[in-house]
Amino acid sequence: MPIKEMLAEVPWGLIWPLFVIELILKVIAFADLYRKRTANGPVYMWVLIVLFINTLGPILYFTIGRRHE
Fold this sequence. Notes:
Order of helices and strands: HHHH
Oligomer: single chain
Largest sheet: none
């Protein structure tokens, strides 16, 4: 089956909202990391987690990594 036919069968109406939510979470997490410059653990580690662990990375940062004052 050619790739065009496979992509035509994907339910994009269900997938696009997930992409948007993931992008929003990453942008907010990076903005918070940039603004505060402190986290539970090395900041560069949290940057990598947020960047490479899709959807779960920003959620982990906000629940575990963010240092509450």
